[in-house]
Amino acid sequence: MTEKALRLGTRRSKLAMAQSGQVAEAVSQVTGRPVELVEITTYGDVSREHLAQIGGTGVFVTALRDALLRGDVDFAVHSLKDLPTTQPEDLALAAVPLREDPRDVIVARDALKFTDLPRGARIGTGSPRRMAQLNAFARGHGLDIETVPIRGNVDTRIGYVHKGELDAVVLAAAGLQRIGRIDEVTDFLSVDTVLPAPGQGALAIECAADNADLIAVLGELDDPFTRVAVTAERSLLAALEAGCSAPVGALADLLADGQIVKEMRLRGVVGTTDGSRTVQLSTTGPVPDTHDRAVALGRELAAEMLAQGAAGLMGERAQ
Questions:
Q1: CA–CA separation, 312 vs 269, rounded Å?
Q2: Which residues pair with 217 in a beta bridge?
Q3: Active site residues
Q4: For the whole prediction, is pTM greater than 0.85?
Q5: What is the DSSP string of 187-242?
Q6: pLDDT in tens, 284-306
């Protein structure tokens, strides 16, 4: 007799379905059980408002978490950057798989690179973080750009460029990689130019905290280095008291000497969306070997950023 299928809760977007499909396959391999996708519509999927207006934090997550708590699904897959920084006690972050490329990318007309865009180029993004850093870079390098707020799925966003309404749009490399459209990228933005959102490129696999058997099985998909990196990034975000839609970028990367990982570097940035003022700092230390040390790394850097005036650059601080 075949074992009952595990039910994986997922958003309905093409990207969510692609990421969930990849996780379903991996879970099926480690459990030997079939996995079925259960599509769930979230508030962020149906609302037409800009993410910054509807609060950003949790708009794609709440419905999935509710389904988990009701027992409608056994586990759920989220883009880690969409998760609020406080983890509910009744849910476990069972696995953070190996991270995809965390960088932001440009899809521009005429295969242009960011620095080759014409004067007055209109660049679409729904992210205050991207706006702040692109505008800061443009100011520092004598570029003349206009950032335009947009929403919608990948097709909609790239469509603005194809229709000639925008010169370029900014997207996450990981999302395009997962839906097989990475070849449409015209420029990869160096993390020295634009730091990604905390947790960008990583997935979160969540299940009920009291399901020890499932937590153990899903844990096989966990990548410890990715987990400590995103823990440090999200700790920085939480300590700045900023939600997912705040203009905060963060990236923890591992510094290796040959094959040996020596240290972790955490970088953080916060800025006004017009790019006129930014606070950008970094810290380097031993790779955290516990959750608490990863959290401490993020908090320390946040404290330094707040001391340099970061709070005043974020507009409304998330409540």
A1: 13
A2: none
A3: 81-82, 129-130, 151, 157, 244
A4: yes
A5: EEPPTTT-PPPTTTT-EEEEEETT-HHHHHHHGGG--HHHHHHHHHHHHHHHHTT-
A6: 999 999 999 999 999 999 999 99
